[in-house]
Specification:
60 residues, two-stranded parallel sheet, 3 helices, flat
């Protein structure tokens, strides 16, 4: 994952948020997590350890 990839992903996330979607990441690869964590860009997204947790959050 490159810095350009993180910027593109951030743009996608922001577009989803503008449409009223609350995006979540589930099952991220360790190397992608490392790149996102090291990036100066802070994504407006939640990270969940399982799809079950995402679905429970949606039902609230």
């Amino acid at each position: 994952m490159t810095q350009g990839g993180v910027k593109s992903f951030d743009s996608l996330v922001e577009s989803l948020v503008l449409m009223g979607v609350e995006p979540s990441i589930v099952g991220i690869k360790p190397n992608h997590a490392f790149c996102l964590n090291k990036s100066p860009i802070r994504l407006n997204i939640s990270y969940k350890s399982s799809l079950e947790k995402v679905l429970k959050h949606i039902k609230r």
